[in-house]
Inverse folding.
């Protein structure tokens, strides 16, 4: 059986000690082993601080962008292999696997193009020049300069490809070397990507730790950055880590998110906007088996439309085949791990105690093409509550799987925004309406509680990627419960890895520093 090695200090390191086994979540068949210890992490940090920082410092934005373009090309060249690994190790259908692998390549390509546009400079302007003297001769200019540290990326189990690529794209273009740690259980995709990337990158620019983090964070220092995607319990631990506090390590967190979808009072379900609403809710319930940080967990519909929405969801969900994702007739696979299945079943049980069933009960399902008793399967579950504002299990705990809950409201934008706020901060929430005054009122009240607001309407429906798709050009992150972090967002994604500095001096010198 394959033994997954880590890529540290310029070579492959198998590690030592006990082993953890990666399995196929549909059949529980073993796929690969990984050692849980035995890596020289101090040397890995030293390698990044010397070789990685120096190599990236010698490159312009355009040259770093060219590196990203080569990585995207490598993914395209090995696409079928990567998709197969995502199906086998992640429980993805082929469509779900494309969402991860192609999303990673797309993000690398986007930032490659941004690097080309930024050109031969190594500084970014932040705002316009400022006159600070009696004449325009004396000027001020805020700039972004690359930090001299190491970026530690801790990625989640659900997007091993996209998670690696989206964090790497921003850090590398900003000029910071990376040590990436994928979730162990689904690490096959990230490991194969590292095999593809290693020959294409300068020394020390990217390293990969497969297996438990161990003492990884104990080597953090001044100027370093940690970007984390995962659960709120781990996020709290990171905030309190001694090295993070002692060295003022910059920390970006993406944690839990109780995303919501709101149907506006003007929308008929038979309209184009109503169809978009239903398609988005059902897709987010079933795509990646609901294991998306952007998935819709809470659905709010106007009073009187609850049963029509419930019936439409029953009809759409009833035809979805669940089972071994390698089968062409299966549209939804298993959860990624046994631990996830246990946690999600417990969350659904808590929700069931306070809600009524609409579809799927508590997730019981007989999967297609799977040996009896095998696999980490939970079927799509839709619950309903008559009091969405005061349903604690709905508003206080994210069930990170194929589960969503319907509630009703009075149709006002004020109530809808208050419901968004009840989730305590989210990555994305959506509203579906063709009434611009209603949308304006909703956005003004809901924006402080969401990193992104998706506004569904008839005029954009044909071009919509859905609220569950995080785009490299738009911010990904959110306040409060969602972690308070920000990633992507075009050039904004580079700022996590850069230092904003105010320059003051001869205006012509400041202009020249920025390539003017």
């Amino acid at each position: 059986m394959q033994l997954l090695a880590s890529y540290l200090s310029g070579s492959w390191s198998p590690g030592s000690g006990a082993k953890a086994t990666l399995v196929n979540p549909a059949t529980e068949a073993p796929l690969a082993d990984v050692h849980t210890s035995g890596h020289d992490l101090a040397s890995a940090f030293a390698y990044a601080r010397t070789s990685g920082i120096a190599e990236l410092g010698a490159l312009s934005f355009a040259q770093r962008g060219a590196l990203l373009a080569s990585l995207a090309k490598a993914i395209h060249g090995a696409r079928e292999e990567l998709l197969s690994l995502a199906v086998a190790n992640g429980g993805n259908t082929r469509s779900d696997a494309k969402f991860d692998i192609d999303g990673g390549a797309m993000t690398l390509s986007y930032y490659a193009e941004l690097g080309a546009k930024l050109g031969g400079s190594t500084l970014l302007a932040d705002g316009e020049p400022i006159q600070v003297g009696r004449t325009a001769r004396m000027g001020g200019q805020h700039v972004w300069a690359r930090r001299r540290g190491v970026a530690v990326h801790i990625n989640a189990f659900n997007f091993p490809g996209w998670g690696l690529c989206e964090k790497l794209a921003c850090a590398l273009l900003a000029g910071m070397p990376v040590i990436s740690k994928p979730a162990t259980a689904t690490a096959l995709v990230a490991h194969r990507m590292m095999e593809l990337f290693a020959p294409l990158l300068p020394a020390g620019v990217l390293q990969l730790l497969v297996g438990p983090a161990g003492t990884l964070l104990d080597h953090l220092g001044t100027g370093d950055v940690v970007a984390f995607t995962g659960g709120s319990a781990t996020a709290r631990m990171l905030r309190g880590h001694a090295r993070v506090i002692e060295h003022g390590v910059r920390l970006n967190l993406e944690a839990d998110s109780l995303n919501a979808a709101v149907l506006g009072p003007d929308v008929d379900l038979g309209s184009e906007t109503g169809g978009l609403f239903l398609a988005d809710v059902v897709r987010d319930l079933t795509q990646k088996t609901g294991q998306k940080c952007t998935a819709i967990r809470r659905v709010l519909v106007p009073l009187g439309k609850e049963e029509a929405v419930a019936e439409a969801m029953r009809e759409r969900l009833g035809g979805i085949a669940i089972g071994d994702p390698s089968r062409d007739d299966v549209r939804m696979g298993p959860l990624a791990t046994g631990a996830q299945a246990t946690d999600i079943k417990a969350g659904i049980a808590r929700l069931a105690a306070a809600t009524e069933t609409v579809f799927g009960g508590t997730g019981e399902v007989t999967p297609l093409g799977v040996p009896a008793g095998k696999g980490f399967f939970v079927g799509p579950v839709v619950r309903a509550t008559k009091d969405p504002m005061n349903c604690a299990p709905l508003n206080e705990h994210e069930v990170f799987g194929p589960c969503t809950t319907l509630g009703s409201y009075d149709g006002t934008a004020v109530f809808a925004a208050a419901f968004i706020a009840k989730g305590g901060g989210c990555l994305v929430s959506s509203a579906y309406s063709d009434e611009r005054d209603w949308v304006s009122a909703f956005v003004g009240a809901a924006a402080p509680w969401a990193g992104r607001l998706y506004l569904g309407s008839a005029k954009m429906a044909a071009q919509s990627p859905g609220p569950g798709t995080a785009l490299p050009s738009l911010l990904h992150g959110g306040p409060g419960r969602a972690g308070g972090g920000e990633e992507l967002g075009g050039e904004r994604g580079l700022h996590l890895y850069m230092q904003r500095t105010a320059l003051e001096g001869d205006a012509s010198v400041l202009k020249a520093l920025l390539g003017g």
About this structure: Residues 8 and 492 are 29 Å apart (CA to CA). The longest strand covers residues 138-146. The first helix runs from residue 41 to 57.
